[in-house]
Amino acid sequence: MAKRLVAVTGAKGQLGCDLVEQLCREGYEVSGPGREELDVTDRESVRRWLQARKPDVIIHSAAYTAVDDAEHDGDAVWRVNAESTRELAIAAEELGAKLVYVSTDYVFGNSGSTAPYLESMAVDPINVYGRSKAAGEAYVQELHSRWYIVRTSWMYGRHGRNFVQAMLELSRGEMPIQVVDDQIGSPTWSADVSACILRLIETEKYGIYHVTNAGSCSWHEFATAIFELSGIAQQVQPVSSAEFVRAARRPAYSVLAHSALAAGGFPPMRHWREALTDYLAGMNELK
Which of 99, 122, 183, 257 would be a feasible disulfide site paired with 116, CB 3.0-4.6 Å? Predict the structure, then answer.
């Protein structure tokens, strides 16, 4: 790229922090406001911010990700995940900037599939969060000409709350830990997603990409692996989704195939256990 200015929305979030750090290490100039500095639902503020910077690439990682809260807060989740994406897509097209939209495995789940979802398959979300992200994807494809839609899943990282940190905190208490064993997906380290996005934006290979760590497991297997790899003797009781009722339905199976990455000649994503091992080792070094 002639210029190397990347704008990152949601830069203070779990993925956003990794993106900013890795982009800076690779020599990019980065503009990365957090939610307090830029409200992505404020159309005029976003346009002024982009026009002042004229980025070459916009990575839209800001999102409303509280899946259960979304069931009762439909207007807010729609403004953040769908409408803000529509405005960013229009603004990015006007600027001639590439656009990366970070999406989710939860755009799937209603088909009852038990085989990894291909990038070309029709979306079929079963909750409000998934529907809002699917709408964002549709706006990107309709209103922009140079886009990457990056679907990821079960993400954890060094910044913000996530399942790994929640499990480790629970292990320090005395209450039994119960985790569902009938939802299957791919745990994914945000640092690996960020690294893949950096590879994508250096190319003109636009399209939908599934960017998760390889392999799959249940949430119960994920929790068990967290304790095993941390050297913590902790029992995890398996429960069914029917026993662990939450406001939003979750897909029973939401594993994503990596066909587009393979077709584009990109390096394969490493296995989730390898990524988790490195993540936990890094967390121990920070203590």
Answer: 257
